[in-house]
Structure formats: structure tokens, C-alpha cells
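Journal club prep — side note

Before the paper discussion, L.F. wants everyone to see what a predicted structure for a comparable chain looks like in C-alpha cell form. Sequence:
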Amino acid sequence: MNTSGNKIPLGITKDQVELGTHLIHFWRTPDEFESGVRFLELGMADESQHCVLFGHDEANERVLDILRTNGHAVDRAIREGRLVILRRESSAAVTLEKIEAAFSAAVRNGATAIRYLGNLGMGRAPLPGRGADEVIDLEKGGTLLALRYPCVIVCMYDVNTVSGALLLNGGFGTHSHAVSRDALRTNSFYPPDQDARLAFVKHDHPKT
């Protein structure tokens, strides 16, 4: 898979996306869900890249079914550590620790890029911890991780089940970019001072 400098193909659209980006993809239909999974498929097809999948059980299973149907060697990637699956079952702080551990392992193993695909929607189990507030904490922490590792974080929000308040505060409020009308666009609702507050950690990739 070709990369251009510090950018990788997004897959959801034809855009290239800069490493360090934390973006959102809203989905409503099965086709829109599958278009989000294409982001992860490009990483599965490139053995120099590593992938992390996060979400409630139903969403994770759905992603894995799509990957297998499209011919990707999911079980081999898991055994080799190129695909890490995390379940939505812990507090934001614990989840962020697990994500960072997966990112650190990928860097140690020579990953040229890390693709993280997270799914937010109402599965059978309730949101852990403080619910929506926990999600917002997780998203804010994800922005920090994106700036510290050679990764792109894509968060897929199920607009069929996620509340309007969470779409606004967790979706638009914590992602610098969004997929809209088949293109990657700057999120105009992203707090204008957010990047300035976080700039001091950008590209400070761990040396572990």
C-alpha cells in the first residue's frame, strides 16, 4: 500500500489522510457501515501496517465478518499481532491504556502506520462507566494518542442509535475532520483552540 510522506489512503473516500488525524464517519445504512470498514481493509492488505478494532461486541463481529467475506486473513493477523481487537467494557482511562499498549506494540514491531477503527453505537450492553461522559473522555484521550503515534483514528458513529447530545459533543466536538458527501472535510464545529492546546505533543512518537 503506497503512502505519500506522512499520509495514508483513507479508503472510505479517495482522500489521503495525514497520520495524527482523529476523524469521524457517521453511518446510517449497511453500505455506509461497510464503507467505513474499507479504512481497516487497506491496513489488513498491507503487512507493514497494523490495525486496532474497538467497539461493542455486535459491531466488532460485524466488522470481522466483512473482513473475512472480503478475503482477509483475520485469524492470521490476530496471531501475528497486526490486528488487535478491544471490547467496549471498561472505563475511558482503562480503555485508553489498552489502546496505547496496542499502539506501542505496533511501533516496536515496525509498523509504518496504525489504523484504528472504533465503533460507537448502542449494543446489547450499556455504555460502561459514566455512559456518554465516558465516551467524551475517551474521544479526547484518542485525540492525544493520535498526535503521539503514527496512526489515523477513525470513529464510526451509528446515527440510528446514538443520542443527539452525544453526536454533537462526542462526534463534532472531539474530531478535527469528518467524512461528508464522499470526501474528507475539516470539521467546522471542532473547537478552534483545540489544536493549539494539544500542539505540544504532536509527532512526539514514543521510541519504545
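L.F.'s comment for the group: The CA atoms of residues 184 and 198 lie 22 Å apart. Keep this in mind when we get to the figures.
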